[in-house]
Specification:
heterodimer; A: 263 residues; Rossmann fold; eight-stranded mixed β-sheet; globular; B: 80 residues; alpha+beta; 2 strands
Chain lengths: 263, 80
C-alpha cells in the first residue's frame, strides 16, 4: 500500500511545485517508487519544473475520462528510473474532475507506487478539494512572510477539518543571513505561530533557480537546498535527521571554496 | 540603549508579531482591534479574581479545535 501525500500552501508562488519535484526526486534517490501527480488542471507546471514538458501524450483528465490507461499517461523521469509524472491537462479547468474521481485515480496508482505526491494548486477552491481528497498526509509549504503564513494557517485549518490530522510544514526560501540580522522570521518563529511539525527548511539559494531553469531537480547537486530536500525525504521515511543550521554564518573558507566550485 | 531598541524592533520581530495577531484573529474570525480589546478585557476580569500583575502576565488566546457538533461550529478557546 502506498503513502499519499498532498503538497499544498494556500498562497501561490511559495514553492509547492518545486518542493513536490524535489521531494519526489529525493524519495526516488532513496530507492522508493514514486509518482508525482500535477493536480493543477488548466495551469500545469510540474512537467516544466521536471523538464518533461515535451514528453506529454496523455494527461490526468484523459485517464479519468477513460481515453487512455493510467500507464500510458505516466512519464518516466530523465534522471530517476523509479520516478514518474502524471501530468495535468492544460486545456481544461478544475471542474473537469471531482474529488471522487481523484480518489479512484489514486487508488489505481497505489497498486504501482510506494509514494504518491499530489501537487496542489494555489487557493482553497475545487482544485484544492480535488487534491486533498485522496491524501492521507499533507505537507504545507510556506515562506517566512506574513501573507504566506496567514494562508498556511488557513490551509492547516481546512486540512484538519478534512481529516488530515497532523500536517507537516516546510519553510521555504529562508535566508540565514537575514534571520541573523533580525530582518526575517526564523523557521522557529514560523513554527511558533502555526504550531505544526516542522518537516524541513529550504534555504533561498541560487542553486534552486538554476536547477529549475534546466528543468532538473536540485536534489543530487552539491547544494544546501538539495541536501535539505534529501533530509525531508528521509524524515518522511521516518528517520530522525537534524536540521541544517542555516542561520550560522558561512566562513570565509566556505565562501572561497564555493567560488572555486562554481567554475 | 539605542542598540537594544533596534534589536527589539527589527522587521523580523515586527513580522512575527503581525503574523501572530493575524492568525489569531483569523482563527477567531474577529478583527484585530476586537481581538486586542477582548484580550484586554479578559485580563481585566482575570485580575479581578486572581492576584495578577498586569505587566507581568501576557494573555495568549488560541483556538484549540473547531469541531462540528450537529449544525454548530464549536470553537474552544484556550487561554494561557
Amino acid at each position: 500500500m502506498s503513502e499519499v501525500i498532498v503538497v499544498t500552501s494556500g498562497k501561490g508562488g511559495v514553492g509547492k511545485t518545486t518542493s513536490t519535484a524535489n521531494i519526489g526526486a529525493a524519495l526516488a534517490r532513496l530507492n522508493k517508487k514514486v509518482v508525482l501527480v500535477d493536480t493543477d488542471i488548466g495551469l500545469r507546471n510540474l512537467d516544466v519544473v521536471m523538464g518533461l514538458e515535451n514528453r506529454i501524450i496523455y494527461n490526468l483528465v484523459d485517464v479519468i475520462e477513460g481515453n487512455c490507461r493510467i500507464k500510458q499517461a505516466l512519464i518516466r523521469d530523465k534522471h530517476y528510473p523509479n520516478l514518474y509524472l502524471l501530468p495535468s491537462a492544460q486545456t481544461r479547468d478544475k471542474s473537469a474532475v471531482t474529488p471522487e474521481q481523484m480518489i479512484k485515480l489514486v487508488d489505481g496508482l497505489s497498486q504501482i507506487f510506494d509514494f504518491i505526491l499530489l501537487d496542489c494548486p494555489a487557493g482553497i477552491e475545487q482544485g484544492f478539494r480535488n487534491a486533498v481528497a485522496p491524501a492521507s498526509r499533507a505537507v504545507v509549504v510556506t515562506t517566512p512572510e506574513v501573507s504566506a503564513i496567514r494562508d498556511a494557517d488557513r490551509i492547516i485549518g481546512l486540512l484538519e477539518a478534512g481529516g488530515i490530522k497532523k500536517p507537516d510544514l516546510i519553510v521555504n526560501r529562508l535566508r540565514g543571513d537575514m534571520v541573523r540580522r533580525g530582518e526575517m522570521m526564523s523557521a522557529q518563529d514560523v513554527v511558533d505561530i502555526l504550531a505544526v511539525n516542522l518537516l524541513g527548511v529550504i534555504p533561498d539559494e541560487e542553486s534552486v533557480v538554476i536547477a529549475t531553469n534546466h528543468g532538473e531537480p536540485v536534489v543530487g547537486s552539491d547544494s544546501q537546498a538539495g541536501c535539505a530536500y534529501l533530509n525531508i525525504a528521509r524524515r518522511i521515511l521516518g528517520e530522525t535527521v537534524p536540521l541544517i543550521d542555516l542561520e550560522q554564518g558561512t566562513s570565509l573558507f566556505h565562501r572561497v571554496a564555493s567560488i572555486f566550485k562554481k567554475k | 540603549m539605542a542598540h537594544r531598541k533596534n534589536c527589539l524592533n527589527t522587521s523580523g520581530k515586527i513580522a512575527k508579531a503581525r503574523a501572530k495577531l493575524l492568525v489569531a484573529s483569523d482563527r477567531l474570525s474577529c478583527n484585530q482591534d476586537e481581538f486586542c480589546q477582548m484580550k484586554k478585557e479578559v485580563l481585566e476580569i482575570l485580575s479581578k479574581y486572581l492576584n495578577l500583575e498586569k505587566d507581568v502576565f501576557e494573555i495568549r488566546m488560541d483556538i484549540v479545535c473547531t469541531a462540528r457538533q450537529g449544525v454548530q461550529d464549536v470553537k474552544t478557546i484556550q487561554i494561557k
